[in-house]
Design goal:
9 helices, five-stranded parallel sheet, alpha/beta, Alpha/beta knot, 2 domains, 18% strand
């Protein structure tokens, strides 16, 4: 899988490419991540990438030309399955989307900044707009990192124990059941006996009950969906 990230701050992405599961995925050859500085595709001495918006609003808008040049260059080199844009007004990112994106071969991920991007970029190039929540960030880089991390960890072979990723919260539409490890007794707080029984059927039933009760208490909206 290849992800090309278009950003004004490519150096930020070393925080995921140099650590943890994304680094492991890159090292194993399961994923390639390339960052592209949008300023490199801008004209003029100062490589300007933003300008004032038409209509008199405050703030600055990312210009169409540098972004278009970068996307067009990449698309001339290979075929892309999706061109994603991180934006507060996109569809809220969830586990199902992470699973779906992990099956794609080539993805372009555009990080917005300032007041936003020229709307014509969205009309001409973007295939899907994605938000990580109902709040505004200084830029789309953090959202892109969240998405990349969620996508890479479900690519088959990236995590040694693939069943671990499949049992995470949201994979089955529910929150995860509580988990415990040693010691079995910590100052009188004990691990539930059922988890130490060795009875797989009863343990699975207990876990499902815990998932349902925890989801009902904390995220009832998931059960409605």
């Amino acid at each position: 899988m290849r992800i090309d990230i278009l950003t004004l701050f490519p150096e930020m992405f070393t925080s995921i490419t140099d650590y943890s599961i994304p680094k492991r995925a890159i090292g194993k050859g399961f994923m390639e991540i390339f960052t592209h500085n949008i300023r490199d595709f801008a004209n003029g001495k100062y490589r300007r990438v933003d300008d004032y918006p038409f209509g008199g609003e405050s703030g600055m808008v990312m210009m169409i030309e540098p972004i278009a040049r970068c996307i067009e260059k990449l698309k001339a080199e290979r075929q892309y399955d999706a061109v994603l844009f991180t934006t507060p007004d996109g569809k809220v990112f969830n586990q199902n989307m992470a699973n779906r994106f992990s099956m794609l071969q080539n993805i372009i991920l555009l990080c917005g900044h300032y007041k936003g991007i020229d709307e014509r970029i969205r009309e001409l190039f973007i295939t899907e707009e994605v938000s990580i929540g109902d709040f505004v960030l200084s830029g789309g880089e953090l959202a892109a990192m969240v998405m990349v991390d969620a996508i890479v960890r479900v690519i088959p072979g990236v995590i040694s124990d693939e069943t671990s990723a499949l049992s995470d919260s949201f994979q089955d539409g529910l929150l995860s059941a509580p988990v415990y490890t040693r010691p079995a007794d910590y100052q009188g707080y004990k691990v539930p006996d059922i988890l130490r029984s060795g009875n797989e059927k009863l343990i699975n039933e207990w876990k499902l009950e815990q998932q349902l009760s925890r989801t009902r208490a904390r995220r009832p909206d998931l059960l409605e969906e």
